[in-house]
Amino acid sequence: MIKFALAGNPNCGKTTLFNTLTGSTAHVGNWPGVTVDKREGLYKKLAEKVQIVDLPGIYSLSPYTPEEVISRNFILDEKPECVINVVDATNLERNLYLTTQILEIDVPVIVALNMMDAVKANGDKIVIEELQKVLGVPVVGISALKREGTDELMQKAFELAQTKRNGTTILENTIVGPIIAKVKEALPQDLGSKLFHAIKLIEGDELEVKAHPEADKIATELKAQQPDDGFDGDYEAVVADRRYDYISVNFKKAIVKANKQGMTKSDKIDKVMTHRIWSIPLFLVIMFAVFHFVFSEDLLFMNAIFGLEIKSETAVNFFTGMGYEGEPLGGIPSLGVFLQSWMGFVFDQLGELFGLFMSTDTWYGALIIDGIIGGVGAVASFIPQILLLFLFISIMEDSGYMARVAFIMDRAFRKFGLSGKAFIPMLMGFGCSVPAMMAARTLEDTCERDRTIRLATCFSCGAKAPIWAMLAVVVGGFFGDIFVFTIYLLGIVIAIVSALIMKLFGKNHDVPPFIMELPAYHAPQFKNLMAHLWEKLKHYVVKAATIIAASTVVIWFLSNFGWAFWNGMVEIENSILADIGRGLSYIFYPLGWAMGADGWKYTVATLTGLIAKEDVVSTCELLGLASGAIGLSTAGIYAFAAYNLFTLPCMAAVATAKGESTKKGFWVTLAWWFASSYVISLIIYWVLELYSVAVWAGILVTLVLVAAIVASGIVLSRRIKKYSKE
Ligand code: GDP
Ligand code: MG
Questions:
Q1: Which residues contact 99 (CB under 8 A, 6 or more apart)?
Q2: Residue 5 in contact with residue 84, Cβ under 8 Å?
Q3: 442: CA distance to ligand 2 center in Å?
Q4: What kind of fold does domain 177-256 have according to CATH?
Q5: Nearest ligand for residue 521 CA
Q6: Measured in angstroms, how far is the CA atom of residue 14 from the centroid of ligand 2?
Q7: What's the mean pLDDT in 547-572?
Q8: pTM for the full model?
């Protein structure tokens, strides 16, 4: 089997090409950091099977980021039979900077000129023959997205793979040229890719200097003798400058721009979407629309505005999917609520069906009907709603909007002296904290990485969504969507405030510059969306059938038996679980939701959430806190939600955090999760509770709190700015 590597800038379409070639459904992302590790797959349409390796996106082969090191070492050490350099044709000049470096390695190279569809749509033209002549390697125009030209690309790459190639450089006729030749001679005889190593040595590349101290001495001497026209001996800058010069002189001819001055469609959309002032409100409106469409029981605001209420007398109101329990409806439900009600109905019926064969008075009947069908069903009934939510998130990702969100947030973060780069792994936390924490590997600074991992859980993940969906029903039909929206928002706000606090009390360092490419907007691909949803669905179903089902059985047992379990089933109030819960609930007493007769149940639900967050829902169901029966005040519900959002994530995420953090960082993270969730829950409960006692007192307290937060924010960011200057 032979091996081809895909190398290129972030966002040039490597993963899209990888998926097209291998038929897999790796995550196509619009921001850097999505592919940190290399990923492998098979291409089977040629005479021989070809292993395709999707390398992380890079702008150069310097050794500054983990992505650069991974990609570079792969090409040098693993010696793939061919490197497919994926190039974004809409952004040729910047992309070719990397190409000029890859060409210096002794390896067959083919340039895949991707996004030709977008070039055509803009009315531009690229003369491929011209490019080929200047680069000296084959160039094939493709569209990874539209699946055009990819087979031709592979055919040509396959032919190339049969040959050998020696590195070439565009630096030959510059002032660096003579130095390169001499440094090459000083390198060990049997070393491959001498040209590449020599040039990196001249640039002063740390890895090379360490590996070849002899040759480095010679390079340093030669550089000192050579006048370098105004770069103060900074040869890294000299080399970069020569590369860009060469590109802009030689590749101009290859590109024929149609509208030299005109703005592309994407530019026009971005004028609005990334507007300095309106972009954030616009983002909030879009997010609210999504939550409204997924979680609202009153889609058309019929009840909220006109006070209309639909009275449903029939057993099942087909058109709304709701009301099968005979309750009056708030209005026309959103699609999410509609689907959720139907799923709930289905699981209810399933329970009844089993009820025909067994009684819940027997232990096995109770286990199957109340335990498994009830518990797992409670989680499963939220699947359609969660999928719908992810459909919207996928649309935002695939169309290119999420990249803008990252850009907007980066801009906002920077105002506080925070690195925007950290925000991007965090955004992934909306899906799942595990990959989000892994994406933090893109951050160079270990301290920054630890903080990012710590805050990734503020972004409510897919497993927490069923908790909000369950609570949304209780908060009251008309406010369900607002409730969920505010929970997500709370997460973002707390993440920003926490980052500020850590910045102030932790070690300080520079905010590294962060380059982000905004891909052109395009209509989301149906196939991509379905692939994402399918992955999510699979993940949920597998999780429900394994971890959640298993923990449900354990919880069922603990809630139906006393310490003397050989004496048979007992009332839930006398169960083992009740004792454990009561004991622990004292810790959470100040947070409001652990008070009262049901307090221990919420405590237990929180506890089981440490296994998997969906377990909060199945536990509530098992303990008789089915959606209607949650007896918390609005303040209690918010405090409960906040606690579950900010506390320890599930076991899988905790394990990932441990693996990805520094040792000390991990312990701080654990402490942070415990403490922050407690404090936030406490504040929320008492502020909201004051509202219900005395609205004016509540408003006053809120104003004071807001003023305090704003004031400390200003003071903090001033101090941070001062620090970072020093
Ligand atoms: P990677 O960072 O190099 O792995 O890039 P991705 O594969 O994640 O793609 C980045 C963005 O470019 C995504 O929004 C893709 O849908 C888009 N994209 C990829 N290939 C093409 C293409 O051939 N044409 C167009 N118009 N867009 C593409
Ligand atoms: Mg990728």
A1: 85, 87, 111, 135
A2: yes
A3: 13
A4: Helix Hairpins (1.10.287)
A5: 1
A6: 6
A7: 89
A8: 0.71
